[in-house]
Input
Amino acid sequence: MVQAKPRPQTFDDYLSHCQDKDARYELTNGELIEIPPESDENVIIARAMDRALSELVGFRRVRSHQLALEMPGQPKNRFPDITVLLPEHVEQLKASGQSAIRLDMHPPMLVVEVVSPGADNHRRDYIDKRNQYEWRGIPEYWIVDPIKQQVTVLSMTTDGYGETVFVGDELVLSQSFTDWPLTAAEMLSP
Output
């Protein structure tokens, strides 16, 4: 008789269970929920942002799509489209052998989500992820929205995230990246 592998209950269980899987999953209330693949447009936007951010902070500090963030609440993890790490994360990830930022580690300095079509995706990026990233203490969260043709920069304040929306030829301003060179239009149409 073959016994089924127990369902992951903790983030450690999740990491162990998913390390050999090709798909990405979120752990929500003990259930593995497969994350659908990104649209080609979103992949292109994320790749261009990866390149621009890598030029500012270095290649090793920027991760695309594959870095798991352990989160408070449900789901227990997220896979941001882009994550900019702190310098200390590079060594921590190397030492752990896992591509995951744990709750006992400092939060990354920036996460970026490119909004996919559909009401569920819009809600997830603008409400659910915003709340979780704010609770996690991530200093900046950028929402790049090809549907609305806008870039929303959420910056941590003493009262939570403050929000600024950029459109068209407006230069996107960031507290963390004061030398960010791109306008909203350039980020939305690389």
